[in-house]
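Marked as duplicate of an earlier ticket. Keeping the data here for the record.
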Amino acid sequence: LSRTHAHFCGGRRPGSSPSCPAVVGVKSKAMADKKALTSQSQLQAMLQALQLQQEGEEKKEFKFWNTQPVPKFEDEGPDGVLEADRDIKDVPAEPLTLPAGFEWDSLDIADPVVLDELYTLLYKNYVEDDDNMFRFDYSRDFLKWALQPPGWKRVWHCGVRSSSSKKLLAFISAIPANIRMRERTQLLVEINFLCVHKNLRAKRLAPVLIREITRRVNREGIFQAAYTAGKVIPRPVSQARYFHRSLNPKKLIDVQFSHLPKHLTLANVIKRARLPTEPLTPGLRPMKASDVPQVTQLLKDYLARFALAPVFSEEEVAHWLIPREGVVFSYVVEDAASKKVTDLVSFYSLPSTIVKSVKYDKLMAAYSYYNVPGKTPIKQLVKDALILAKQMDYDVFNALSLMENETFLDELQFGRGDGELSYYLYNYRMQPFLPSELGLVLL
């Protein structure tokens, strides 16, 4: 249940003749069949990769998950709930028992002291890359944004403290979200920020945290959840890969985030990564509060094409997408004649501390968020996002291989990252699908 992007960069219209409609029809059908065959092949390859990863894991890894309402790897049943909702009066009112010396706390992150405690716990104990060179640095403003959307509950900010010192030692969170799973839309929670202090990893607190947040969510009448992890457990609904676009190649090479290709000089790499100094799309401007109704409709129409996607209210769009300095940046394209909003592009900020560099202390990373191409091709929208991120002195721009992102990654010089991010549903079976059918971004 840990939220991890922690796989940092490892390196890196067909023509038709209107005079022959029958031929056009045959050609279009052949192209559609070829596309369907390609998608089936890609899905089969993903499922085989999942099976190989699962077989490579120790069976003990699944002792906990085998007790939970999640699909088995071999489960081929139809989409749907695995365990029926319980009557709330049957959900225990009291929290789970913790080992001696620990106690539960519902964190009040409106209190700056408590927010500082959470920031420190995550900063020192959450996500690092495999070589311990980079560590995520979620800002306090980012945490408030991520943990206090419409409908948030303090009881879902679940902490574990030392009974004696009262030091915060572990945390897990849930936030509400309306999610569409193919034809079914329902309220569930997104689980995030599962973190246990490094010195307590042997105490097996993570399963207790998961069970406790499940109890707290069940007490509110919610019995499904979405979450991501950088490892394979039973059973992903999809897997997406991170791709990285260099904005400051010299710094990325200096800190060993990426490496200089043998056949290129640093000057060549810098030249290839160069971007225009200003965005290219006419009418592109920062999103405003008055844009919320139009942006909500844009997202509703666009996200309807994906198998797994959020269904945003206007209040949620305002929370997640109205720009916040240093946290989230959203831009719309406004048509000059009609004054209507036709497109959306957005990214959020998640820097990392550079652990082993004398010269630099921060790696400034922007992450692609929700993009809606309307009149403007998605490649052009994302190119503008790269330009804007570069203007703000970001070093790298990251994007997952979900939604339509794979259509621009190569042309915009994104390099393939070295790990997969797996998406999961709790107490809901959904047959696996390609990342191009994934319309949900979890922070």
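See parent ticket for discussion. The longest helix spans residues 21-56.
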